[in-house]
Write a structure and sequence with these properties.
Largest sheet: 2 strands, antiparallel
Strand content: under 5%
Radius of gyration: 15 Å
Distance between the termini: 15 Å
CATH architecture: Orthogonal Bundle
Structural class: mainly alpha
CATH superfamily: Globins
Strand order of the largest sheet: 1-2
Number of domains: 1
Helix content: 40-55%
């Protein structure tokens, strides 16, 4: 495993160390990820990487003006997904205006998988990758891009 992350714009930076093993007694995925701090770390590292992917950067640049509030919204969303407390009340329907296609989802999932494997313990990485694939499939289905379960991941 490489000790650096290669940024799409050419530079490299050190990989962050993985999260510590889950605390003793942690039962839910939310707890095993380290609660909000663990989810926040995962989300911030992920978007630091994915927002500069060549096929996604223009979409992010056009639609995300203030990253701080957007990242907090994403932490709220993922906190609820993994069984923690959340005030998120939005839907994935807002993605309809972004003109996303299968290649965008594939890139998002590829970077998500890399990020999870870099930052999380193996069990939690597998679970978070499965959640993301399910979310991508459901969103593509909602956007009329297939029957779900069809989102390819580029390697």
């Amino acid at each position: 495993m490489s000790a650096t992350i290669k940024h799409p714009h050419g530079h490299e930076y050190p990989k962050p160390p993985p999260n510590a093993p889950p605390p003793e007694g942690a039962v839910t995925l939310f707890e095993r990820l380290g609660g909000r701090p663990g989810i926040s770390r995962l989300i911030k590292w992920f978007y630091a990487r994915v927002r500069f992917e060549p096929d996604l950067q223009a979409i992010f640049d056009a639609h995300i003006i203030k990253w701080g509030p957007h990242l907090e919204l994403l932490v709220e969303y993922w906190s609820g997904v993994v069984g923690g407390p959340s005030t998120y009340s939005g839907t994935m329907a807002r993605h309809a205006r972004l003109s996303l296609d299968a290649s965008h989802f594939s890139t998002w999932l590829r970077v998500w998988e890399e990020n999870c494997r870099d930052l999380l313990q193996p069990r939690e990485a597998v679970e978070m990758i499965a959640f993301a694939k399910s979310i991508a499939d459901e969103t593509q289905q909602m956007l009329g891009q297939g029957e779900g379960g069809t989102c390819p991941v580029k390697h």
